[in-house]
């Protein structure tokens, strides 16, 4: 096991702080766990540690305290970040509407040697690796150590947008070893520097911190297709987060809705409209950093995405370091391919099972003896082999669901569904997600009676048809899944803008989809405009 060694040059950061704050940090006597020092005008200074926060001084920060730090560190870049030369510390500024600095976040930068051994075998395999994790969990530290290790045997270029990897100044920090570093004049030009690094400097490995824009994702794909190994970080915590991010989903292949042939849909046992991975992923391996010494590893991103969109996600490999510094790897057991979950409206039952306790003949439930098997649990080939039976009437109590639309959906499908007036007469309860989550009285009563509950995401005929198709085990074509994915992608884009991203461009879409995206943006008090010409016209979401 590699011995861990930490260098943080903390004295250099303390020297730029006002004397009373510097003394308070020293007095706290926990420099090894210090993450950052926060100084906001009119508030008390706070030191943030790995475990909790400490108020450094009861006196509020004044304009003189802010100016004391600013005068010692010089100018801030376009991204409101500054550093200390030959160190890894980063000082970020918060400005008011007039451009004056009213807050500072002084983050401690550390070079931690010996942390990368937990994934060193993946680094040395030559595969492109993407790191995900929440802020402050150590992504950049691992990226810096990766650059040092790889540079011992390969030509490594670091695209250092905010100087967090190689430190401030013209000379890179010794922590990056023999790796070369290219600085970026403005964050918006990161993608151009990425391409320039490949074209001009003949690298074998490129290290990138924080891929966050669509142009950067496209540049990463271009680099990967030229045979260069990529090691990068991106916004997000899990594979699912990244898949629903419209800006970055291309890093892992992206998803799209496709229509299968009748034969293929029958073979898979799914509907004709399903989700598929759009293209090969840019990165071969994805690592979710759960904690500083615990990671979930998806060693085959393509297989992980394929399984996720089909409804049976593959468990990741778990790697962690125990208290004694020993590394443990838990490999998931080989899994038999289960039956894909239907990509339709949600079903739930009192027993918490996805197996429908209800058969085609309209019976309220099935016997539980071992000699009887629910028809819904049979494989598609076994179901096709059974003789078809006439559909029997099923009584549905619609709570919060438009009954006239439900009757219309049943008529369109040609199924004998009867909408009843009270729960006592019903075989099935159908309701909306809002009512189900708020635990309305009919929902509670249905669960007590172990009655199947069908939960709709929206009060639309399309959703009702999906539920009725599941209820009668029918196969219908529908684009509801595609709309749900588009809505989820739009919501992620909105959240990214609310979290501080300048803007997000959504994928090209028809007018009906763009109308929905504009409405979702307006509901969150954001601005959205459409750009481009058909069929490539798209929506951009940003703050006013």
TrEMBL record:
Biased composition (Polar residues): 344-358
Pfam hit, one: R3H
Annotated R3H domain residues: 480-544
SUPFAM superfamilies, per database record: P-loop containing nucleoside triphosphate hydrolases, R3H domain
Keywords: ATP-binding, Nucleotide-binding
GO terms assigned for molecular function: ATP binding; nucleic acid binding
Record flagged with keyword Nucleotide-binding: yes
Keyword Transferase applies: no
Cross-referenced CDD domains: AAA
SMART domains, A to Z: AAA, R3H
Chain positions covered by the region annotation Disordered: 332-367
Name of this protein: AAA family ATPase
Organism of derivation: Bellilinea caldifistulae
């Amino acid at each position: 096991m590699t011995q861990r060694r930490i260098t943080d040059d903390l004295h250099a950061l303390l020297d730029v702080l006002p004397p009373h704050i510097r003394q308070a940090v020293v007095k706290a006597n926990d420099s090894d766990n210090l993450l950052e020092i926060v100084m906001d005008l009119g508030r008390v200074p706070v030191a943030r540690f790995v475990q909790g926060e400490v108020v450094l001084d009861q006196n509020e920060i004044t304009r003189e305290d802010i100016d004391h730090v600013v005068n010692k560190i010089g100018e801030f870049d376009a991204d409101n970040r500054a550093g200390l030369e030959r160190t890894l510390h980063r000082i970020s500024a918060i400005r008011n509407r007039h451009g004056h600095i009213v807050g500072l976040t002084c983050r401690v930068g550390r070079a931690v040697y010996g942390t990368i051994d937990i994934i060193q075998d993946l680094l040395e395999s030559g595969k492109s690796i993407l790191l995900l994790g929440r802020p402050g969990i150590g992504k950049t530290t691992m990226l810096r150590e990766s650059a040092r290790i790889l540079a011992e045997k390969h030509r490594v270029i670091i695209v250092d947008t905010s100087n967090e990897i190689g430190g401030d100044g013209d000379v890179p920090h010794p922590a990056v070893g023999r790796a070369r570093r290219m600085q970026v004049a403005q964050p918006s030009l990161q993608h151009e520097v990425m391409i320039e690094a490949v074209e001009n400097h003949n690298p074998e490995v490129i290290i990138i911190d924080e891929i966050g824009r669509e142009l950067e994702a496209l540049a990463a794909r271009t680099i990967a297709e030229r045979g260069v190994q990529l090691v990068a970080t991106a916004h997000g915590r899990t594979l699912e987060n990244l898949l629903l991010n419209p800006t970055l989903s291309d890093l892992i292949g992206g998803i799209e809705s496709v229509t299968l042939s009748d034969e293929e849909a029958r073979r898979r046992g799914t509907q004709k409209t399903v989700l598929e991975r759009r293209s090969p992923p840019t990165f071969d391996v994805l690592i979710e950093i759960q904690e500083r010494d615990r990671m979930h590893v998806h060693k085959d991103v393509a297989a992980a995405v394929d399984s996720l969109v089909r409804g049976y996600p593959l468990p990741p490999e778990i790697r962690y370091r125990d208290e004694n510094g020993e590394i443990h790897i838990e490999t998931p057991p080989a899994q038999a391919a289960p039956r894909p979950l239907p990509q339709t409206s949600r079903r739930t039952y009192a027993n918490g099972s996805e197996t429908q306790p209800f058969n085609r003949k309209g019976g309220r439930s099935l016997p539980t003896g071992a000699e009887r098997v629910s028809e819904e649990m049979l494989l598609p080939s076994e179901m096709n082999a059974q003789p078809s039976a006439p559909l029997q009437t099923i009584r549905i109590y619609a709570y919060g669901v438009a009954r006239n639309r439900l009757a219309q959906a049943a008529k369109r499908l040609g199924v004998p569904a009867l909408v009843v007036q009270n729960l006592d007469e019903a075989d099935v309860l159908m309701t909306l997600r809002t009512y189900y989550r708020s635990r309305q009285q009919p929902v509670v009563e249905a669960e007590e009676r172990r009655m199947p509950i069908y939960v709709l995401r929206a009060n639309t005929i399309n959703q009702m048809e999906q539920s009725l198709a599941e209820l009668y085990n029918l196969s219908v074509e529908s684009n509801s899944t595609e709309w749900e994915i588009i809505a989820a992608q739009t919501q992620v884009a909105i959240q990214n803008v609310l979290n501080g991203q300048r803007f997000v461009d959504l994928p090209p879409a028809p007018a009906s989809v763009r109308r929905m995206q504009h409405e979702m943006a307006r509901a969150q008090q954001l601005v959205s405009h459409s750009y481009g010409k058909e069929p490539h016209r798209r929506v951009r979401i940003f703050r006013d």
